[in-house]
Amino acid sequence: MSWTDERIAMLKKMWEGGATASQIAEELGGVSRNAVIGKAHRLGLKSRPSPVKANDKKKPAAKKPAAKAAPAKKDAAPAKPAAKAETKPAASAEPAAQGSGKPASSAASQQADAGPKAAPVQMDQQNLPKIVSVGPGGFLRQGPGDQQAPIPPAPPRRLVPAKPSPEIADKTSLLDLSDKVCRWPMGHPGEPDFHFCGQQVNPGFPYCVEHCGRAYQAQLPRGSRKPPPPLPFGGPRVR
DNA sequence: CCCTGATTCGC
DNA sequence: GCGAATCAGG
């Protein structure tokens, strides 16, 4: 697989959106988690709340000199790493049946990218796992503190009907996203029919009125673990 | 164990 | 430029 513009765009979107490298790799398909990370770095998108980089030593000089040069090839290592528990190399799950055209409405799951600054959902990288509502894929969103009013969705006004705007007669692709259109994902990235809602947004929200209703449903805490990323792209994919 | 991202380095 | 191997923290 090569890094086409689309794939790179997808990578950026997801990476910036908070999706993990694994999720990105899985959605892109045909690439490993490492490939995604490597590419991300080469693209300059680096650093994000990395679990392994929590420490802020004033002396960054602390590297792994001894462990570096040698480990690459285990030169004189007497015993090889018995535990080569490398997780399965993401088998590219390409949609085999394309001709049948599956309904994308099955289950919207992915994220919808970082919304406008005014978006009710804050994208704080260090935010606390306060979960109270569910987003696109069923993943949980942040707490009320980050969400302002629970739901000021659509007051009165004549709201955009369910008919698509003329400007978005066709599918709204990843690259067509803007502050004006609903970013609710339809289907999954990487799939042939993946696109975004594209409706006119509910002013102040990243989604249209209809999807705001789905995005901001309150859901009280439960046994639900999984702090969820701010804007998880690879939401619980329905498989 | 699992997960995460970071880094290195041979290709 | 790419990504597997590896490292290292949670």
UniProtKB/TrEMBL annotation:
The protein, known as: GcrA cell cycle regulator
Protein source organism: Erythrobacter litoralis
Highest rank taxon of the organism: Bacteria
Biased amino acid composition, Low complexity: 88-116
Chain spans, region Disordered: 40-174, 219-239
Comp. bias regions, Basic and acidic residues: 72-87
InterPro entries: GcrA
Signal peptide stretch: none
